[in-house]
Amino acid sequence: MDQTWLIRDLPFLTGTNRDLVKDWRRRGYFQPRDNRGNAIVGDGWQRFSFRDLLFLRVMTVLTEHDFPVSTATRIAERCMPWFGRLMKADASEGGVYALIRKSGGSDEHSFTFARGHDALCTELQKSLLTDAGLPVITFVDLAEILLDLLRRVEEINREQ
């Protein structure tokens, strides 16, 4: 998808407000990139690729769940190849989930990815069995993020 969007489209498409995106960019947490991951050099107007929209949506979901921006950035970056796989995949293969685990009183987060419901259950069991304390486990359905964003893009395109 070679289409790009303006900053005014971000609140509807990603749930992220413009000032927050500007702040994340200024602080180095977000760098606009094309769909191949190359930095976008603007012509005075900031344009955002589909990859940027996915990245910002993951960051927004995670920060809404009280993840530090630095952790959200790291996880969002690791999600990007999975979105590419999802766009090429057969829907019967199941969704892709990012599982983020925080143990006990630690501020450290570990994360992994699971393909399909069975793999998700296996990863959840492993997380529960390997932690002496009660871990906090958050999982993000990447397929749902992708499908929701595609619906929103389609809606904006119809309105233009």
Summarize the structure.
By secondary structure, this protein is an alpha+beta fold.
Task: Spell out the key features of this protein.
two-stranded antiparallel ribbon, three-stranded antiparallel sheet, alpha+beta, 160 residues
Q: Can you give a write-up of this model?
A:
With about 160 residues, the chain is of the alpha+beta class. The chain has one domain (about 5-160). Helices cover about 50% and strands about 15% of the residues. The radius of gyration is 17 Å and the shape is globular.
Q: DSSP strand (E) fraction?
A: 15-25%
| Distance from first to last alpha carbon | 17 Å
- Shape assignment: globular
Number of helices: 6
Topology, number of strands:
5
Q: Look at the structure and give the mean pLDDT.
A: 83
Main beta-sheet annotation = 3 strands, antiparallel
Question: Widest sheet: strand order?
Answer: 4-3-5
Task: Give the H and E element order.
Answer: EHHEHHEEHEH
What would you call the structural class?
alpha+beta
Count of all domains = 1
Uncertain spans:
none
Q: What is the alpha-carbon Rg in Å?
A: 17 Å
Helix content bin:
40-55%
Annotate the secondary structure layout.
Layout: E1 5-6, H1 10-14, H2 18-26, E2 47-48, H3 50-64, H4 69-88, E3 96-102, E4 109-115, H5 117-130, E5 136-141, H6 142-159
Antiparallel strand pairs: 1-2, 3-4, 3-5
